[in-house]
Amino acid sequence: MEATLGIILSVFSATATAVWTIWTWSEQQKEERTQKRNQIAALYINPFLFAAHELQVRLDGIINQQELEFFKREYPETDEIGSPEALELLYVLVKFFGWYWYVYRYGPYTRDKKAIELISKIIRTFANREDFAGDTFYFSFSEQRSLGQTFVKVFGQAESIYPELEAISLYQFATELRDDIQKDRPMYQNVIKTIQVIDSAERVEELEGCDRLIAVHNDLVDLLSYLEAQEGFCISPKVRQKIRATASLPTDTEIIHAIAGRVRLRIPRLRQDLSYAERLRQCLQSLAGVQEIQINPDAASVAVSYAPTLSEATFQQRLFQAIAQSGSVN
Known about the structure:
This protein has a 4-stranded antiparallel beta sheet with strand order 3-4-6-5, with helices on one face. Strands 1-2 form a two-stranded antiparallel ribbon. It has helices at residues 2-64, 67-74, 84-105, 113-126, 141-151, 170-182, 189-200, 210-231, 269-272, 274-285, 312-328, and strands at residues 152-155, 164-167, 254-259, 262-266, 290-296, 301-306. The chain has 2 domains: 30-229, no CATH class; 252-326, Alpha-Beta Plaits (2-Layer Sandwich). By secondary structure, the protein is of the alpha+beta class. Pfam families: HMA_2 (PF19991).
């Protein structure tokens, strides 16, 4: 009996020891994974979040808060490559380009479908000529990567599994950009043009490529909201708001209903002016992405269906301009 009890106690003790060992090993593994995750976040996720936040805030300031007018008034002088406002905007752009490339390669979001989808949407907007007119703020995929890796650089041990990176300062950016532009490198042709367009615009309404920036801004709001929810902290002290179209509607025109891919408006002039209705239809048909137009003169309404891949703000910007154009022709 005593021998049997001894065996039972020995088995129990061995089992308890095994369970304790496994639990301890599991906790150690969990702690190591947490430490590794925190390390990767410090190296890549946090800098990317701040780069995305800085770009979103800068775009919001230019489009919504008259920063462009402020800088034109306070800093009228420019050097040989551009104004401080133009250089700072390009600086935050290339920082975003640099950090998103490394987030694609390292860290917890390399297989996150939602994060990759949101980042890719922003990248495609910058490289999209079909839905956005002109080359202002246009950067091809190769240009984004080249610019990003030029100004977000590896330092320390480059051969490390997780290389340490750092964005160069604004001063260094301006210096290197000036040197490279003087060498007439083809990669910087769109950079030069973008700087010139920013400096030629006195107000945001005159800024070519503004519809592209609105689309980027609104996608950044979605991206930051998702990543901050995943990371468990918020960078911005206030709630981010998406930007509506900067063009304004005529005073007697209003949006009745709008969802992604469709918008309906009330235009009183449609009741009295049949020639205007036809002119309006022709202007709207010229817009990229328009799929169907329904005009009801009796109800003084027009409904426009468009490609849902277009952002609501981008399409409304073009829609308002088309309505203004149709009304200005006699």
